[in-house]
Structure formats: C-alpha cells, structure tokens
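Dear colleagues,

As part of the handover before I leave the project, I'm documenting each prediction I ran so the next person doesn't have to rerun anything. This entry is a single chain, and its sequence is reproduced below.
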Amino acid sequence: MTSTTIGTGMFRRGRVSPIQFLMLLQLKEGPKYGYEILKVLRERFEGVWAPKTGTIYPALRSLEARGFVETEAAGGKDFYGLTDRGEALLKWVGGRLESDLKFADRYYRTAIRLMPRPMMRGFLDMLKTLAAGEVWPPILIERLVDDAMERDEKLEVLGAIRRLLMSRLEAVEGMIRDLEVGGEP
C-alpha cells in the first residue's frame, strides 16, 4: 500500500480505529463471527471497557465497505475474514509501529511538560493508583517474548528491554537521592 492509500498514522482520519485494528488482528488468525470478536475484546480489556454489539458490528461493516474484511455466511452466522487488502494494511501497520511509538512517547512527554500544576497532581495520583494495582505500561513484556521466539532472539529482546528499564530506573533513583539530601531533581 502506498502512503496515499493509508497515510501517515494508522489511527488518523480515513483509516482504521484502534478497535478496528484489534478486530483485524483477530481476523489474522482466521475467520470469526462478530460475537466471537466481541468476546475476545471483552476478555482482553478485563472489565476496563466492555464493547457492545452496537460498536462491533458497525465497525465490521465499515471494514467490509473499505475492503479490509469480507463476510461469508455459514451455519446461520456471518463469518468475517481478512482480505488481501486487510492483510496489506496489517503489514503496513507493522512497519509503522516504531514511528507511532516514538510519536506517542514525544506526545506524552510534551503533554506532561505543558500540564498545569492541578492537572499534573491529578495525573500523578492516577499513576500512583495504577502502580498500586500493578498496571503495566502498554507494552507487555510477557506478550512480546513468547514461546514462538528463538532463545537468542528472546535474550536480545529482553536485554534491550532491561537496558531501557535500567536507564529509566537510574534516572528515578537519581531524583530520589537528590530529594533525600534536600536537593532538587
């Protein structure tokens, strides 16, 4: 797909929504009927968000209208399957993930720097609540490194994640030390 077909951001106007993207990823495994897709999303969001049929089916129809999925009736159910165009979209998205993650990182850094103090206090309270509930950032190490990976590849990925986390932890430790001795971070 060309950049004029998809554009520069996978969730920007005219592409797919984040939920539609999750639907396409499910269909990569093979055809599914709508309620099957809905159940998987409900399970994965663990009560944080409960998708409704009024969200899922219009999203599937939109994907079908744009040629990313096709429908086949079988056993009284409509099964949705990924088309070649849907496959191409997923391949394109895979190539965009690095730049999209960098954009998200810079976006949140900028938003945090620009937040007024009262909003920042609320944000920090939210972080403390999430940490108490052991909510992990969006990238789940356990899912990135799975049994399908070769041992050496796992070690390489885990080493890179460890270096990233250690550098962040060192920065936090330095700020804590500065505060404990009365300095400013």
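The longest helix spans residues 84-114. The helical segments are 3-6, 18-28, 34-45, 53-65, 84-114, 117-132, 141-144, 151-180.

All the best with the project,
I.
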